[in-house]
Q: What sequence folds into this?
């Protein structure tokens, strides 16, 4: 039901001027001479503003066309930091809760604390801003976190021959594959890693250069590598170690 229109005497001079100017703008739409959209285009104002002015005029008369002052003017409408922390804490609980459920609980607490209740959209924004890694860690555990975010995995051998280095290279020949189509086969070189820290790429390249992929030579070379590591009380395979092993085998230069 529309509210009774306030008399012009209840408005200040500035408010009456503002109301009359807005009434002049929307009058063609009120009298059905033109559409609301045409009024908005003519005066270069948003269509939603035109609709709002017409609605307020019909409900409150000229008083509805004035700019009212918010009752909470001068007071901060920002969500308190405590409320943001509360939303984040609830979002990290297990099992995961929906944004709607979190908002309902926060609104209840906000009423008791005198906070401005957050909107659903504000709660959703806070949850969305939480680090995805933190969400996975909280909801799925450390294993899922490592699987998703640990970019480097260190693998250590627990005993001799526990790790091997494999390299693949295409050969310059053409053969028919299982489907009967011509394709280049791959040569796979398996290099036994006798230590728990085989990270020297130059060492691997040197092994392949010396042996040219010959499996027997690789096995003989790596046996000498193991002897050198034991003799020098080290576990790191380097290019120098491989070249020393080559000299012991009397393998021709690569």
A:
């Amino acid at each position: 039901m529309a509210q009774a229109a306030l008399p012009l005497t209840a408005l200040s001079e500035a408010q009456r001027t503002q109301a009359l100017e807005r009434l002049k703008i929307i009058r063609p739409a009120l009298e059905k001479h033109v559409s609301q959209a045409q009024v908005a285009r003519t005066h270069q104002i948003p269509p939603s503003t035109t609709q709002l002015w017409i609605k307020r005029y019909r409900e409150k008369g000229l008083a509805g066309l004035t700019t009212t002052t918010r009752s909470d003017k001068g007071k901060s409408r920002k969500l308190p930091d405590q409320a943001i922390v509360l939303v984040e804490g609830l979002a990290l609980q297990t099992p995961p809760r929906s944004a709607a459920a979190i908002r309902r609980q926060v609104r209840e607490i906000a009423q008791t604390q005198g906070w401005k209740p957050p909107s659903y959209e504000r709660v959703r924004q806070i949850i969305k801003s939480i680090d995805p890694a933190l969400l996975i860690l909280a909801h799925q555990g450390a294993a899922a976190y490592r699987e998703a975010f640990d970019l480097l995995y260190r693998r250590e051998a627990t005993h001799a021959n526990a790790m091997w280095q494999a390299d693949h290279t295409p050969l310059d020949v053409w053969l028919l594959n299982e489907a009967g189509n011509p394709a280049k086969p791959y040569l796979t070189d398996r290099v036994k890693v006798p230590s728990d820290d085989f990270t020297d790429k130059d060492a691997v390249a040197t092994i392949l250069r010396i042996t040219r992929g010959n499996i027997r030579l690789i096995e003989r070379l790596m046996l000498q590598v193991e002897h050198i590591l034991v003799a020098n009380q080290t576990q790191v395979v380097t290019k120098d170690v491989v070249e020393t092993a080559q000299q012991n085998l009397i393998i021709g230069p690569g």
User: Anything to note?
Assistant: Residues 163-249 form one domain.
